Amino acid sequence: GRLLQRGKKEVSEGAESLLSSGDLCSHLGSAAADMSQLISAENCYEVLTKAKDEGVLRAPGVYGRLTPAPEDAEHRRVFCLRTDTRQWEVLTSLPEEIPDKGSGMCTLYNYLFVAGGISAHGDGRSKASDRVFCFNPQTGAWSQVRPLSQPRCQLRLVSMDGHLYAIGGECLFTVERYDPRADRWSPVAPLPRGSFAVAHEATSCGGELFVSGGSLFYRLLRYDSRRDEWEECPFNESRRRSTDMVARRSLVYRFDVDRERAAVNVYRYNTVVKVWHGGASFPLDKPLPFRCAVLGDRIYCVNRSHTLQFEVGGEREGFLPEVLPSPAEARGALVPFVLCLNRDK
For residue 201, which of 106, 213, 289, 307 is within the disulfide window of CB 3.0 to 4.6 Å? Predict the structure, then answer.
């Protein structure tokens, strides 16, 4: 199998591959030239505190103008993880037109789709995108498909039953569905008001969509495409922010990072009997958020520091002791996904 990532994306040798992408940091707008320091996950609080103390964020020319830094094309690549050598190899590069941050990404029919996002413009403002890009791993070619009905950033893109679903986004509750045969986006039932306008996670399981996260960490919503309705599922006992959520067979796995205890906790939701179960815990030297992808009987949890392996489907479900590397040059958040690659060509 192969594992891949975006921004830096990653893939592995075999019938399938897991990939992911990374985003560069953001920096203060041109009116804050004296604070040209890049903001990262490690220093953002320090920079924000300094900006507040010096009154920078109260300046009319600066407030609301936090923009993405220019993306280095060298760091907008897709990598493939070779499971035999445990090494990452370059598969392709992202087109320049794909926004630097906030895009949704998933695979459908062994094509990679990247939708929405947010890009900086020459006037220092940021603008959400409605463009959708498609990558064919057999030809190595990128193309554009029909744009979203509305621009979205920080959306979740999920494939289910031969369709793509663009779910929410920053300050958006709307949901739309893409039919690749007709090359058309159509609206479906929006997320319930008061749910997850930002920071939500989504996955598909058994022909249904599940959405969790956001500001109400413990909530889980289920979308039934036959009735075009959302409904509440039983609450999860965790009060931590979910770092990602994936599905395998009839189970939804939710991964929560516990910074206080420097660990990741796994919770499992059985979609058939509709019950949550507490799961495994794994210590993290650096409790950074990560994103997940399912490949065979393993869930790969990827960030810039390492790649964890969570085994599922057997009697001894849990994290494997072996920690795999991440791409040596990776920056920002990595988004893993799985594709089939033909290594014979």
Answer: 213
CB 117, CB 70: distance < 8 Å: no
Structure tokens at 247: 């599905």
* Secondary element (H or E) of residue 25: none
Alpha-carbon distances of 271 from 187, 224, 231, 266, rounded to whole Å: 25, 12, 13, 16
Per-residue pLDDT at 54 exceeds 70: no
pLDDT band at residue 286 using 50, 70 and 90 as cut-offs: confident
Instruction: Give me the CATH topology for the region 2-24+70-339.
Output: Neuraminidase (2.120.10)
Lowest mean pLDDT across 40-54, 66-80, 236-250: 40-54
In the chain, what is the greatest distance between 2 CA atoms, to the nearest angstrom?
A: 59
Rounded to whole angstroms, the Cα distance separating 243 from 310 reads 15
Name the β-bridge partners of 184.
Answer: 179
Mean pLDDT of 67-96: 76
Write down the pTM of the prediction. Answer: 0.80
How far apart are the C-alpha atoms of 308 and 26, rounded to whole Å?
27
Q: Which long-range contacts (CB under 8 A, 24 or more apart) does 142-145 make?
A: 142/92, 142/95, 144/97, 145/113, 145/178, 145/180, 145/183
Tokens of 18: 């897991």
- pLDDT over 50 (residue 31): no
Q: Is the pLDDT of residue 95 over 50?
A: yes
| Arithmetic mean of pLDDT over the chain | 80
Residue 8 φ/ψ region, left for φ over 0, alpha for ψ in the -120 to 50 degree band, beta for the rest: beta
Closest CA to 281 of 258, 315, 307, 306: 258
